[in-house]
Amino acid sequence: MTEIRRRPNARGQGELLREEIVTAAVRMLDELADDEALSLRAVARAVSIAATSVYLHFPDRDALVLAAMQRCHEDLVGVGDAGAAAAPGPAAALRARILAQAAWAHEHPGLYKVLHESKVHRRHGMPFKEVMVARTTDAVQRCMDAGVAPAGDAATVAIDLRTAVNGTLAQRINEPDLPWPPAVEQLDRFLAKLVGLRL
Fold this sequence. Notes:
Helix content is 70%, strand content 0%. By secondary structure, the protein is mostly helical. α5 packs antiparallel against α8 (130-145). The protein starts with 13 loop residues before the first helix and ends with a helix.
């Protein structure tokens, strides 16, 4: 069986190959739902390059997984930002951000699982995830400032909310056969009980 090799990138286009490698890793991680199952050799095959070419951009699998998860996190933040920007007020904006996160997790369960349960995360951390914490904290603070949520420590409320939201989304992915209530209803209860929104 003849191995198909891609034409080499033109000089100075190594960054394009790096992006292709990350794209392939993202696609495979969504299917595998386990970063430990990702093979650099399989990623190389998917991009039609020699396995050694991957190492020109990523020293090991952990580095590639981190790059893939950073891209996923940026996408997740982006859909939340878009939802919040279209909302008519701070309470609706926080709700839109949370619902956008839930929709993304439903659409990409494998990636969401890796993003929150990755073994790479335990070994290296994912400091880029602080962006989501900051976005949620700012959104909660805006609700408090507008008087649509009780005044309090926005950072603590945001952490409680993120813990509840991430927990239920992860459990829905890991235990899909449980008799789950509708996701929107459950998330609205979190917003009401943890943030104090009157939805």
